[in-house]
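Case study 2.
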Amino acid sequence: MKTFLLFIFLIFSTFGLHAQSLKGEVTSSEDGLPIDGVHLVNTTANNMAVSDENGRFMLVANKGDTIIASNINFNTKQFVINDEQFLSLTLNPAMIQLDEVRVSNMPDTEAEFRKKIIDMGEVENETFVPFGMTPNKSQGSIPKNYDPDYTKSLAYAINKPVSFIVKKLSKKHKNKVKYYQTVANQGNVIANNKKYNSEIVTELTGLKGDDLVHFMQYLDLDPAFIKRSSEYEIAARILKGYETFKSENQKG
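Prediction:
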């Protein structure tokens, strides 16, 4: 028994001698500023670190380990650890390119548009795309295992008490939850921008320049409404708001 315990001790001691804590800093190649929330995953040793508000991090890594650095606003970088004592890492800002939104076959006047709404009746299919608009990509979602609404629920605590406690205490799990929430929010922002933007408002109302800006500020559509509504419902809200907007400006 003593021999076995000594053998285990020697194994962990040897591992400890080889493992090292690699310190570093992540900055943007665009302006040199530190990047907060960069996930650095050691795919060789299966561990992870997250940069702080100063871009600093500490990651357990050995020479030859493969590291992947990622952040929603920057391009992912993969590299191999050499003999660095301090790692200075730069990431390139990601260029998020929205797909072109085309609005075609729109009525020439508001009256014709309202008539089309009446003729079409109730729209039951949420995926309905009116007047030739480009369908949206699916919105951002959080994996179930990292969704706080699921992992912090009473049912989850009862059915999976060990996992519930581990997730409650694990800093690594909290960092992953934060990452997936950021990704999901970014996906929702992109989806909303494709359903409601200045080009669509101009196509419906004819407004441009300062008049367009003032009207969109006046309309002030709730992001939650944009997310749950179809393009059809958003277009109807825009035109209804435009009628009120014109009426109030004429009185003024």
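Confidence is low (pLDDT under 50) at residues 9-17, 121-139.
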